[in-house]
Write a structure and sequence with these properties.
The structure is a homodimer. The first copy, chain A, is mainly alpha-helical and about 120 residues long. Chain A has 6 helices and 3 strands, in the order αβααββααα. The longest helix of chain A has 16 residues. Chain A is elongated and about 55 Å long. Chains A and B meet through helix 4, helix 5 and helix 6 of A and helix 4, helix 5 and helix 6 of B. The structure holds a DNA duplex (30 and 30 nucleotides).
Chain lengths: ~120, ~120
Amino acid sequence: MMPISEAESAVMQVLWARHPLSAEEIVTALGDARQWQEATVKTLLNRLLNKGAVGAVKEGRRYLYSPLLQREAYVHEQSKDLLDRLFGGRLAPLVAHFSAHETLSPRDIAELKRLIAELPDER
Amino acid sequence: MMPISEAESAVMQVLWARHPLSAEEIVTALGDARQWQEATVKTLLNRLLNKGAVGAVKEGRRYLYSPLLQREAYVHEQSKDLLDRLFGGRLAPLVAHFSAHETLSPRDIAELKRLIAELPDER
DNA sequence: ACACACCGTTTACATGCGTAATCGATGATG
DNA sequence: CATCATCGATTACGCATGTAAACGGTGTGT
């Protein structure tokens, strides 16, 4: 698969949240995040179609778009890529980085403890 | 700061591992990972100089390059960017993603348990 | 001194990306 | 029907990027 660009991924986010959507609805949904002309979104949709990341079905005079690329797959690829490039492909060093440098919220900490507790103990 | 591109970051990796280095040494060090002509590395070094990400001191007829941008800063920016874009800015969901989808190595798991144990308990 | 080898600097060029405007078909409207 | 509004499709265009070759200055060996 060709890679999804940053701008394109914004469109994907919208479609992952809700679909199918018309181009116009996507523009509206994006309104908050990106100040894009309708033409811009159309271009991105076309590129996503070519990349096979979204599909479209005709509904009257317009198309309704839906994601073909699954969010989980995208998220996974992106995350794995980061881990590989910067953390030797392992999760622990990333967590170490954030626990050392970043404000982990109490909520985050609690959630992490819960998650980790569920992991199988080694031995 | 202007963003560091993928190819540029490969050069940074080398310099983070060891510096100062001449252009030639960088090419050699990259040899494994990237099949680049010396000219290509020179271009990347120049772009990195312009971006202020590396510095150079003349040593005889050549320059020796060193990173100015710190690895930690770069890693942090990249990681935070990923978290923000895909995980609502929080670490826990990313960990959840990997613990659900990815083979966490026993080593990773052990390390995570250790890390998390050190976090302050809430209450 | 002179040619050459070796550097960094400049220039090159195709592709992708961000951001649109314009074109052409087609359904709606008077 | 004729015109207009509306879509998607096509074209545009500047900048970044990946990848490198060409150029030009300058130590160096003979």
